[in-house]
TrEMBL record:
Its cofactor is Fe(2+); Ni(2+). Pathway: Amino-acid biosynthesis; L-methionine biosynthesis via salvage pathway; L-methionine from S-methyl-5-thio-alpha-D-ribose 1-phosphate: step 5/6. This is Acireductone dioxygenase. GO terms for cellular component: cytoplasm; nucleus; plasma membrane. InterPro entries: ARD, ARD_euk, RmlC-like_jellyroll, RmlC_Cupin_sf. Keywords: Amino-acid biosynthesis, Cytoplasm, Dioxygenase, Iron, Metal-binding, Methionine biosynthesis, Nickel, Nucleus, Oxidoreductase. One of its GO terms (molecular function) is nickel cation binding. It is an enzyme of class 1 (oxidoreductase). Belongs to the acireductone dioxygenase (ARD) family. Fe(2+) binds at H89, H91, E95, H134. It catalyses: 1,2-dihydroxy-5-(methylsulfanyl)pent-1-en-3-one + O2 = 4-methylsulfanyl-2-oxobutanoate + formate + 2 H(+); 1,2-dihydroxy-5-(methylsulfanyl)pent-1-en-3-one + O2 = 3-(methylsulfanyl)propanoate + CO + formate + 2 H(+).
Amino acid sequence: MAMEAWFMDDSNEHPRLPHRLNPKELLPLDKLAELGVLYWHLNPKNYENDEELRHIRETRGYNYMDLIDIRPEKLENYEEKLKNFYTEHIHGDEEVRYCLEGSGYFDVRDKEDRWIRIWIKAGDLIILPAGIYHRFTLDTSNYIKLMRLFIGEPVWTAYNRPQEEHPARKDYIKSLNEEVGLQYPLEAH
Ligand SMILES: CSCCC(=O)C(=O)O
Ligand SMILES: [Fe+2]
Protein backbone atom coordinates (compact mmCIF):
# COMPACT_ATOMS: atom_id res chain seq x y z
CA MET A 1 0.00 0.00 0.00
CA ALA A 2 1.37 3.37 -0.96
CA MET A 3 1.71 5.98 1.71
CA GLU A 4 -1.38 8.16 2.19
CA ALA A 5 -1.45 11.94 2.55
CA TRP A 6 -4.34 14.40 2.91
CA PHE A 7 -5.17 17.99 3.80
CA MET A 8 -5.92 18.45 7.50
CA ASP A 9 -8.92 20.09 9.07
CA ASP A 10 -8.15 23.03 11.37
CA SER A 11 -9.00 21.44 14.71
CA ASN A 12 -6.19 21.45 17.28
CA GLU A 13 -7.75 18.72 19.38
CA HIS A 14 -6.59 15.12 19.68
CA PRO A 15 -3.60 15.26 17.32
CA ARG A 16 -3.46 11.44 17.08
CA LEU A 17 -6.78 11.32 15.21
CA PRO A 18 -6.59 11.53 11.37
CA HIS A 19 -8.10 15.02 10.96
CA ARG A 20 -9.00 14.52 7.31
CA LEU A 21 -10.43 17.70 5.79
CA ASN A 22 -12.32 15.73 3.12
CA PRO A 23 -12.80 12.19 4.37
CA LYS A 24 -12.46 10.57 0.94
CA GLU A 25 -9.76 12.76 -0.60
CA LEU A 26 -6.15 11.70 -0.74
CA LEU A 27 -3.42 13.96 -1.99
CA PRO A 28 -1.56 12.65 -5.06
CA LEU A 29 1.98 11.87 -3.93
CA ASP A 30 3.52 13.98 -6.70
CA LYS A 31 2.21 17.00 -4.77
CA LEU A 32 4.65 16.00 -2.06
CA ALA A 33 7.50 15.84 -4.58
CA GLU A 34 6.72 19.46 -5.51
CA LEU A 35 7.43 20.35 -1.88
CA GLY A 36 10.72 18.46 -1.99
CA VAL A 37 9.37 15.58 0.09
CA LEU A 38 10.75 12.25 -1.17
CA TYR A 39 9.39 8.81 -0.49
CA TRP A 40 10.26 5.12 -0.92
CA HIS A 41 8.52 1.93 0.12
CA LEU A 42 10.89 -0.83 1.25
CA ASN A 43 10.61 -4.16 3.04
CA PRO A 44 10.87 -3.26 6.73
CA LYS A 45 11.59 -6.87 7.76
CA ASN A 46 14.75 -6.85 5.70
CA TYR A 47 16.30 -3.57 6.79
CA GLU A 48 19.53 -5.24 7.87
CA ASN A 49 20.23 -6.73 4.42
CA ASP A 50 18.27 -4.49 2.08
CA GLU A 51 20.11 -3.70 -1.17
CA GLU A 52 17.70 -0.90 -2.01
CA LEU A 53 18.21 0.75 1.37
CA ARG A 54 21.96 0.32 1.00
CA HIS A 55 21.77 2.00 -2.40
CA ILE A 56 19.75 4.95 -1.06
CA ARG A 57 22.16 5.39 1.83
CA GLU A 58 25.17 5.19 -0.45
CA THR A 59 23.91 7.51 -3.18
CA ARG A 60 22.66 10.13 -0.68
CA GLY A 61 25.56 9.80 1.73
CA TYR A 62 23.64 8.64 4.81
CA ASN A 63 26.53 7.14 6.74
CA TYR A 64 24.87 7.74 10.14
CA MET A 65 22.01 5.49 11.27
CA ASP A 66 20.18 4.84 14.52
CA LEU A 67 16.84 3.41 15.65
CA ILE A 68 14.31 5.19 17.84
CA ASP A 69 11.45 3.38 19.58
CA ILE A 70 8.72 5.85 20.45
CA ARG A 71 6.94 4.36 23.46
CA PRO A 72 7.02 5.43 27.09
CA GLU A 73 9.19 2.53 28.33
CA LYS A 74 11.77 2.92 25.57
CA LEU A 75 12.14 6.66 25.08
CA GLU A 76 13.59 8.92 27.75
CA ASN A 77 11.52 12.07 28.40
CA TYR A 78 8.76 10.61 26.26
CA GLU A 79 6.14 13.30 26.95
CA GLU A 80 8.52 16.19 26.46
CA LYS A 81 9.97 14.73 23.26
CA LEU A 82 6.54 14.15 21.77
CA LYS A 83 5.53 17.68 22.67
CA ASN A 84 8.61 19.02 20.87
CA PHE A 85 8.07 16.77 17.85
CA TYR A 86 4.57 18.23 17.47
CA THR A 87 5.73 21.84 17.71
CA GLU A 88 6.06 23.26 14.20
CA HIS A 89 9.75 23.52 13.30
CA ILE A 90 12.47 23.28 10.68
CA HIS A 91 15.98 21.83 10.65
CA GLY A 92 19.20 22.93 9.00
CA ASP A 93 19.38 19.50 7.33
CA GLU A 94 17.07 16.94 5.79
CA GLU A 95 14.96 14.83 8.13
CA VAL A 96 15.22 11.20 6.99
CA ARG A 97 12.99 8.64 8.68
CA TYR A 98 12.30 5.01 7.82
CA CYS A 99 9.36 3.37 9.60
CA LEU A 100 10.18 -0.20 10.66
CA GLU A 101 7.14 -0.88 12.87
CA GLY A 102 3.98 0.90 13.95
CA SER A 103 2.79 4.13 12.35
CA GLY A 104 2.53 7.88 12.81
CA TYR A 105 1.89 11.23 11.15
CA PHE A 106 4.36 13.67 9.64
CA ASP A 107 2.60 16.97 8.95
CA VAL A 108 4.20 19.34 6.45
CA ARG A 109 3.19 22.79 5.26
CA ASP A 110 2.40 23.21 1.57
CA LYS A 111 3.11 26.34 -0.51
CA GLU A 112 -0.10 27.99 0.68
CA ASP A 113 0.79 27.17 4.28
CA ARG A 114 -1.85 24.46 4.64
CA TRP A 115 -1.09 21.36 6.69
CA ILE A 116 -0.66 18.13 4.76
CA ARG A 117 -0.79 15.03 6.95
CA ILE A 118 1.41 12.13 5.78
CA TRP A 119 0.64 8.72 7.26
CA ILE A 120 3.81 6.72 7.71
CA LYS A 121 3.62 2.96 8.20
CA ALA A 122 6.08 0.07 8.28
CA GLY A 123 8.17 0.16 5.09
CA ASP A 124 7.77 3.89 4.38
CA LEU A 125 10.98 5.88 4.09
CA ILE A 126 10.49 9.63 3.90
CA ILE A 127 12.83 12.56 3.40
CA LEU A 128 11.73 16.02 4.47
CA PRO A 129 13.92 18.72 2.93
CA ALA A 130 15.89 21.13 5.13
CA GLY A 131 13.83 24.24 5.84
CA ILE A 132 10.32 22.76 5.44
CA TYR A 133 7.96 23.52 8.33
CA HIS A 134 6.79 20.22 9.81
CA ARG A 135 5.80 18.33 12.97
CA PHE A 136 5.29 14.73 14.03
CA THR A 137 2.74 12.86 16.14
CA LEU A 138 1.91 9.25 16.86
CA ASP A 139 -1.47 8.05 15.60
CA THR A 140 -3.98 6.00 17.62
CA SER A 141 -1.68 2.95 17.49
CA ASN A 142 0.50 4.94 19.92
CA TYR A 143 3.68 3.33 18.69
CA ILE A 144 6.35 3.72 16.04
CA LYS A 145 9.85 2.41 15.51
CA LEU A 146 11.91 4.58 13.20
CA MET A 147 15.32 4.44 11.61
CA ARG A 148 16.97 7.85 11.49
CA LEU A 149 19.50 8.51 8.76
CA PHE A 150 21.89 11.42 8.46
CA ILE A 151 24.91 12.66 6.53
CA GLY A 152 27.84 12.82 8.96
CA GLU A 153 27.48 13.68 12.66
CA PRO A 154 23.75 13.96 13.38
CA VAL A 155 22.25 17.31 14.36
CA TRP A 156 18.66 17.08 15.57
CA THR A 157 18.25 20.75 16.51
CA ALA A 158 14.72 21.97 15.86
CA TYR A 159 14.12 25.66 15.13
CA ASN A 160 10.54 26.50 15.96
CA ARG A 161 8.49 28.68 13.67
CA PRO A 162 8.90 31.51 12.74
CA GLN A 163 12.28 31.01 11.04
CA GLU A 164 12.03 33.12 7.88
CA GLU A 165 15.62 34.35 8.24
CA HIS A 166 17.14 30.92 8.81
CA PRO A 167 19.49 30.07 5.90
CA ALA A 168 17.88 26.64 5.45
CA ARG A 169 14.44 28.28 5.27
CA LYS A 170 15.63 30.82 2.71
CA ASP A 171 17.24 28.09 0.60
CA TYR A 172 14.09 26.02 0.79
CA ILE A 173 11.86 28.91 -0.34
CA LYS A 174 14.31 29.58 -3.17
CA SER A 175 14.17 25.93 -4.26
CA LEU A 176 10.36 26.05 -4.32
CA ASN A 177 10.39 29.20 -6.44
CA GLU A 178 12.93 27.74 -8.86
CA GLU A 179 10.90 24.60 -9.31
CA VAL A 180 7.55 26.22 -10.07
CA GLY A 181 8.80 29.53 -11.46
CA LEU A 182 6.58 31.45 -9.07
CA GLN A 183 7.19 33.81 -6.22
CA TYR A 184 6.56 32.35 -2.80
CA PRO A 185 5.16 33.46 -0.45
CA LEU A 186 2.52 34.47 -3.01
CA GLU A 187 2.00 38.20 -3.03
CA ALA A 188 -1.33 39.42 -1.69
CA HIS A 189 -3.35 41.49 -4.21
C1 LIG B 1 11.29 11.17 15.83
S1 LIG B 1 11.12 11.69 14.22
C2 LIG B 1 9.89 12.96 14.06
C3 LIG B 1 10.05 14.19 14.85
C4 LIG B 1 10.78 15.30 14.21
O1 LIG B 1 10.30 16.09 13.44
C5 LIG B 1 12.16 15.43 14.54
O2 LIG B 1 12.74 14.48 15.10
O3 LIG B 1 12.70 16.49 14.26
FE1 LIG C 1 11.78 17.53 12.68
